[in-house]
Amino acid sequence: MKMKVLIIDNELPIREGMKKIVESLPINQAIIEEADGVQSGLQKINSFDPDIVFLDVEMEDGSGFDLLRLLNNPTFQLVFTTAHQKYAIEAFKFSAIDYLLKPVNPEEVQKTFKKAIHNIRNKDLGSQLAILMNQLSYKNENDKKIVLKDIEATYFIKVSDILYCEAEGTYTKFYFINAEPILVSKNLKEYEAMLEPLGFIRTHHSYLANPTKIKMFDKTDGGCLVLEGGLTVPVSQRKKDTVLNILEGRI
Fold first, then answer.
1. What is the pLDDT along the chain (251 residues), one digit of tens a residue?
2. CATH assignment, 4-137
3. What are the phi and psi torsion angles at 186 (to 5°)?
4. DSSP string spanning the chain?
């Protein structure tokens, strides 16, 4: 089965580079088409009927989101390529749509491509996009609340008040600026799934930080984030490049 791949990006070198990567993959030969923006991309989708679309976020005549809003019941697998827009990236992850950070890593393209092929007939892309658009249209994330329970009480916490979360075995401890920490009997992985779509960053296997509270990245002693109130969160070597890419995209 030949896969029909559409690459939509306003930068010719990016399109050419992505095309070479896809052509080098150890898969059945792909048929590859290109487009450089929202309107040309929409025309290509309608005429080419791709199986997989690699879509840029920011283009000359609009965004990848604008293009999505013009589609009715898309049947292709959608993979975003972007160098920034952290909140968008996490929204894509939350909705189970893959993404690639620029500069694109060929090994990541191969992994993503395999996943996309596997998902073509196993995913309801329409429902995925509905979740994505719901995330993108949410205008008051600072007012969003989560419920935390410890042995003494149930707390309704504004997400914007959280500094960071720390894993303590099978528990998670939440830290705030002007309140005592709250220890909750759920592991950090559960809160990562809940908070990453809202922009929180996994800086370390034991830490999840609120990027709106970050004051600086301290490169000494291996690297850490300095948050409001002077609290610090470590950044592991494995997460360092990802964290820096995310922060540079936000600033």
1. 678 999 999 999 999 999 999 998 876 678 999 999 999 999 999 999 998 999 988 889 988 878 888 887 777 888 888 876 554 554 454 343 577 778 888 888 888 888 777 766 555 555 556 555 555 554 455 557 888 888 888 888 888 899 999 999 999 999 998 899 999 988 998 888 888 878 888 999 999 999 889 988 888 777 899 999 889 999 998 888 888 877 776 44
2. 3.40.50.2300
3. -135, 150
4. -PPEEEEE-S-HHHHHHHHHHHHHSSSSPPEEEEE-SHHHHHHHHHHH--SEEEEESEETTEEHHHHHHT-SS--SEEEEEESS-HHHHHHHHHTT-EEEESSPPHHHHHHHHHHHHHHTTT--HHHHHHHHHHHHH---GGG-EEEEE-SS-EEEEEGGGEEEEEEETTEEEEEESSS--EEESS-HHHHHHHHGGGT-EEEETTEEE-GGGEEEEE-GGG-EEEEGGG-EEE--HHHHHHHHHHHHHH-
Q: Any idea where the domains of the chain sit in the sequence?
A: 4-137, 141-250
CATH of 141-250, one of 2.40.50.1020, 2.60.410.10, 1.10.10.10, 3.40.50.300: 2.40.50.1020
